[in-house]
Design goal:
By secondary structure, this protein is of the alpha/beta class. Helix content is 41%, strand content 17%. The longest helix has 22 residues. The radius of gyration is 19 Å and the shape is globular. It binds NADP nicotinamide-adenine-dinucleotide phosphate.
Length: 309
């Protein structure tokens, strides 16, 4: 089984490199060709159609897992072109190649395809209405992949974080060391999801797909919501981070985290106020039951504390 992993330097890509290893031979790519730790990997720039074509045609891949994405939500408002190329057009290219090669494509999308006006957890077939360029570009990628006719699994995830990479938890830990008090928005609701959960759930789903016959595999095509259980706000998430980090000795003391409204913290791109994802389909098709978000947080704090001590 030859697996091509795109975007191995990202939060999710890094976890996938390890998580996918039991399924086959994983060839990891990054934009520069350098893998975490400075190891040589393959080079694939999704912003450059020739670079992407070269790696796709470089071997007889059975599965392509795309963890690469243009993820700078605010910057995307000022440079829609690159966001649409990487998150949208590249998926049309990967999908067309996979349809011809009968390869499976695994791809990740986002809660930002929704406008956040929902009042119950979003299901896969609820209407999409992205509020910004990033959400539009990710939705374009979903559509392009579906329309290519290739075998595909699209996991929509949300509020991704982990012990490494650029994420909210690491920002809060840094700020908690520098400041006496933090202010964090308390009117956006979602479920913080660890990159490790995404790697593990992807592997379980892929194993189920590989175990299926042709008819069953075709039935798996589509979108799956993949996020931790429960819900919180960014402010309550920040308080939980600070409390656990102080107890684990990662920050000197538990500082105050005050709640503010999104209107008091303007950002270039608007974010959905509510983006809890309903993961029933993931459970029914693949038997994956995501744990509560607090369990993921305990695990990440534990991992950081172990590295710290
Ligand atoms: N982060 C979240 O909160 C979140 C929420 C919902 C959905 N998602 C989705 O989950 C998936 C994984 O996100 P993540 O959190 O792992 O993101 P991440 O940590 O920002 O990683 C994205 C990776 O994509 C790479 N990349 C960017 N432009 C590229 C290009 N032109 N060619 C090749 N690689 C490129 C980046 O490479 P460099 O290291 O070279 O920049 C980076 O390694 C994405 O599809 C994202 O849309 C994320």
């Amino acid at each position: 089984m030859k697996i091509l992993l795109l975007g191995a330097n990202g939060q999710v890509g890094f976890e996938l490199q390890r998580a996918l290893a039991p399924l086959g031979e994983v060839s990891a790519t990054t934009r520069s060709g350098k893998l975490p730790g400075g190891i040589d990997g393959l080079r694939a720039d999704l912003g450059d159609a020739d670079s992407l074509a070269q790696v796709l045609h470089g071997a007889r891949w059975d599965i392509v897992v795309n963890a690469a994405a243009y993820t700078a939500v605010d910057r995307a408002e000022d440079e829609p072109g690159p966001a649409l190329r990487v998150n949208g057009e590249a998926l049309a290219q990967i999908g067309a190649w996979a349809a011809r090669s009968t390869a499976l494509v695994v791809h990740y999308s986002t809660d930002y395809v929704f406008d956040g006006r929902g009042a119950r957890p979003y299901r896969e077939d609820d209407s999409t209405a992205p509020l910004g360029v990033y959400g539009h570009s990710k939705l374009a990628g979903e559509i392009a992949l579906r329309e290519s006719g290739c075998a595909h699994l699209i996991f929509r995830t949300a509020w991704v974080y982990g012990a490494r990479g650029g994420n909210f938890l690491r920002t809060m830990l840094r700020l908690a060391r520098e400041r006496e008090r933090l202010t964090v928005v308390d009117d956006q609701r979602g479920a913080p999801t660890t990159s490790r959960l995404i790697g593990a759930a992807t592997t379980v789903a892929l194993q189920r797909w590989l175990d299926g016959d042709v008819a069953r595999r075709a039935g798996y095509n589509g979108i799956y919501h993949l996020a931790a259980g429960g819900e919180t706000t960014w402010c309550r998430f920040a308080r939980a981070i600070v409390a656990r980090a102080a107890a684990a000795g990662l920050i000197p003391r538990e500082i105050e985290v005050a709640a503010i409204r999104s209107v008091d913290f303007p950002t270039r791109a608007r974010r959905p106020a509510y983006s809890v994802l309903d993961t029933t389909r993931l459970r029914e098709r693949f038997g994956v039951v995501p744990p509560e978000w607090t369990q993921g947080l305990d695990a990440v704090i534990g991992e950081l504390a172990e590295a710290h001590n």
